[in-house]
Design brief:
By secondary structure, this protein is mainly beta. It has two domains: 174 residues, Immunoglobulin-like (Sandwich), CATH 2.60.40.1180; 114 residues, Sandwich (Immunoglobulin-like). Helices cover 4% and strands 46% of the residues. It is built from two helices and 27 strands. Strands 5, 8, 9, 10, 13, 14 and 18 form a seven-stranded antiparallel beta sheet that branches. It has a five-stranded mixed beta sheet with strand order 3-4-12-16-15, with no helix packed on it. Strands 20, 21, 24, 25 and 26 form a five-stranded antiparallel beta sheet that branches. It is elongated and about 80 Å long.
Length: 309
C-alpha cells in the first residue's frame, strides 16, 4: 500500500498512479484559461505549445498523440464522410544515466494538408519525471540548452531547462515547425533520497483569528527560529470527518485543523517539532506539552505527524 497525502497546499489532492515509461500530453493552463477546451478571453493569445509529461522507465516506450478539430471532413467516393486528423509519435528511450525524448514529425491523415486551424509551428516542452535524480546537462537536437536558475526564468524564456525538484526536470525547445524531428537528451545524476511529512495541528484558530505554523529541529522546519517557521493551511478533509482519530493526542474535527506537507527532509531522521500560533497582533502561542517526535522513512512520503493546541 502506498500512503499519499489528501491535502497539498490546502487543496484536495487525488493521488494517481502512473506506469514507468508513460507519456502524457498536457494542456497549457494559466489564469486566462476559461474552460477544458482551452478557450481564452477575446484578444488573449492562444497557448499552442506541446507539453509532454514523460515518466522515465527502464525500458523504451512510445505514445502516439492524435489531434483534430472534430469538424474538418473529406468524403470517400461513396459519399461517406471521414475526419481529417494528424498524429505525432513520441518516444522515451533510457540508457546509462541518460533519457532521450524524441518527438517525430506530425503526419496528416485522411487529407493531404493539415485540418483547418492546425498549428504548424509551436514550442515543445518536456516534463521529465525521474526518481531521486537531477539533470546535469540537457541537449536539444545535439546542442546544449541553457540551464535556468529559477522556475520564473524558465517560464519567461523561450528555450532552456531547469531542475524543478528532486523528481522533475523541465526543458523546452523554442518554437519549431511540427514537420521537424525534435530530440531532447537529458544527462542525469543520482541525488540523495529525500522524504516528506504531512504535519497536522488540531484545535487551531480560524483563519481570520490567526495563522498556525510549525517549528522544529531541522533547517526545513526552521531550526526553531520563529522567523523561519513553516506556515500551514486551514483545512479539514473527508477522512477526519468520517473517521476522527480516537487517541487523545490526535485531533478530530472539533475545531480548525491546519495541515502542511514539508519536503526535502532527510531519510531515517528523528525530527522534533511543535505547533505554534501567531495571532492578528503578532503574539505567539506555542502548543503545550513536550516536543513531538517523528522518524522519517528511507524515502518518499512518510505520513502524518500530529500536534494539537
Amino acid at each position: 500500500m502506498v500512503k499519499c497525502p489528501g491535502l497539498v497546499g490546502g487543496d484536495l489532492a487525488i493521488a494517481h498512479l502512473v506506469r514507468a515509461g508513460a507519456i502524457l500530453p498536457l494542456m497549457a493552463v494559466d489564469e486566462n484559461t476559461l474552460d477544458g477546451f482551452g478557450h481564452r478571453p477575446p484578444g488573449d493569445p492562444p497557448r499552442n505549445e506541446l507539453i509532454l509529461r514523460v515518466y522515465s522507465g527502464s525500458e523504451p516506450s512510445s505514445f502516439t498523440l492524435y489531434e483534430d478539430d472534430g469538424m474538418t471532413l473529406k468524403y470517400l467516393p461513396d459519399g461517406s464522410p471521414i475526419y481529417q486528423y494528424r498524429t505525432t509519435t513520441i518516444h522515451q528511450t533510457p540508457s546509462d544515466q541518460k533519457v532521450r525524448v524524441i518527438i517525430e514529425p506530425t503526419i496528416n491523415l485522411n487529407g493531404q494538408y493539415p485540418f483547418l486551424g492546425a498549428v504548424e509551428r509551436r514550442n515543445n516542452q518536456v516534463e521529465l519525471m525521474v526518481n531521486q535524480a537531477e539533470a546535469t546537462d540537457v541537449k536539444f537536437n545535439g546542442r546544449a540548452l541553457e540551464q535556468h536558475t529559477s522556475l520564473l526564468k524558465f517560464r519567461l524564456s523561450d528555450r532552456g531547462w531547469y531542475n524543478a525538484s528532486n523528481h522533475k526536470i523541465l526543458a523546452k525547445s523554442g518554437e519549431m515547425s511540427v514537420d521537424r524531428t525534435k530530440q531532447f537528451e537529458f544527462q542525469l545524476q543520482t541525488i540523495p533520497a529525500q522524504t516528506s511529512v504531512n504535519f497536522v495541528c488540531g484545535n487551531g484558530p480560524t483563519a481570520t483569528a490567526g495563522t498556525v505554523y510549525i517549528g522544529g529541529n531541522h533547517p526545513e522546519l526552521g531550526n526553531w527560529n520563529l522567523d523561519q517557521a513553516i506556515p500551514l493551511n486551514p483545512s479539514i478533509d473527508y477522512e477526519y470527518m468520517t473517521h476522527p482519530p480516537t487517541a487523545a493526542s490526535r485531533p478530530g474535527p472539533r475545531a480548525t485543523i491546519w495541515t502542511g506537507i514539508v519536503g526535502n527532509l532527510p531519510p531515517n531522521q528523528a525530527l522534533e517539532w511543535k505547533c505554534l500560533e501567531r495571532d492578528s497582533s503578532g503574539a505567539i502561542r506555542w502548543e503545550p506539552g513536550a516536543n513531538h517526535q517523528h522518524l522519517t522513512s528511507s524515502s518518499g512520503y512518510t505520513g502524518r505527524s500530529y500536534g494539537q493546541f
